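Entry:
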Amino acid sequence: MEWHGRPYYSLDAFLKNTYGEKLYKIAVDAGFTCPNRDGTLGSGGCIFCSAGGSGEFAVKTADHPSVTDQIETGLALFAHKRVGQRFIVYFQAYTNTYGSLPHLRALYTEALRHPDVAGISIATRPDCISENIVTMLVNLRQIFSDKFVWVELGLQTIHEKTADFIRRGYPLSVYDSCVGLLSQADIPVVTHIIIGLPGEGEESLLSTIDHLNQLDTWGVKLQLLHVLRDTAFAGFYRDGSYTPLARDAYIDLVIACLEHLSPDIVIHRLTGDGPKDLLLAPLWSLDKRSVLNTLHHTMKLRAACQGRLYERHSP
């Protein structure tokens, strides 16, 4: 397993090892909503979630209504790139399994049919995955046998007190069951974790990491908690009841997570992007390149690497 010079198993390394080239992501907005917004569970979403449902960087349906149109628009943005000839379609905005089975199948099929698409990644909630949806995904993978299907789940934390505070809307057992269902179908799972949640320090965070190590999680996204305008969480920042992480503190927590994480888990993200027009804090996160450079330099100085403190659990 080649890490290509990084002190962790990055998505870039996985793609080069598996497909022989870098695959760029094209984020699309397929017009979904979320049970935490349409009144089924709530109407305001998770407290940190913007009105765009984390899809601010996706190609917009208002300008390009079909998935194919959005893919073509995304491809144009990468026309200047000299490496990577195939792409990942990332169904990003809101909850991308929250619809009828025929509608979901049609959207995913449209993306997989595109000749430049190597596979799709579907961001969703574990309480919006059913056995019928998993069966449909398995069937699609059989039809498009040369392409992949990944599912991304927004867990954020294993701690129920924090989950209630951020209005996640489902218990940990639902996530665990969903990962089991997808794993049985051999569908890779990417789990989203947020660093910097109120009341959660290194000990709480490492408990979440340990839980992921015990499950069949293929990939992880470590996301810095951003304070965005017009979110419920922005009020806590403005009244001083929440203080965002400093950059050095964040880097320390990321390193702790990586060192305790299984070396077999693919790292899909280490910081995240906050839309410039919405981001209130922390503003240091806007310089993503500097953050990653500092992380890599600090890990080198400490001789730190993914899995250094990992403890394998018995089956």
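The longest strand covers residues 148-156.
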